[in-house]
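Quick one: structure for this chain?
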Amino acid sequence: MSRRSIVAELAAAAIGATFNQYRRSPRRRERLAAYLEARCDASILLVGEAAGYRGARVSGLPFTSERQLTGRGPAEATATIVHRVLGELGLEDDVLLWNVVPTHPHEPDRPYTNRRPTRDEVVSSSRFLEGVARGRRVIAVGRLAQAVTGAPYVRHPSHGGGAAFRAGLEALLC
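Got it. Here's what it folds into:
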């Protein structure tokens, strides 16, 4: 699956009860396509659980908030930690960020919440993960990503896990 076809197929996808932030947003599709192009030679894939309501739902990029891209809009703590740690370790250009479920799972009628994706949503998303993982060393960020990918695990940086996230990356990559 090519980078452009991943974006086009993702925009058209219905992944369970998730919000597809790419469907009606040319800006998010363009951002994702440009990001995938810029990281086409990245040898490492960090895979999280799902798009968050302050992160990829708004920005269109995994583990990235709108504030990181434009200086405006919501910030997202996990995105801030991930980018800071990758920058400090000199790895940002060598890493492609992705999620098991690239769209945003939220509680019913509560779009500004995050929930764990269902098994069906994970299965429906697998072709996108497979498309971006091809030829890359995969590292799971969190237990769901580890269960799905079978990849080595690093602690998710949320809820006080920033130091453990960094230590896990250092142990695996440095």
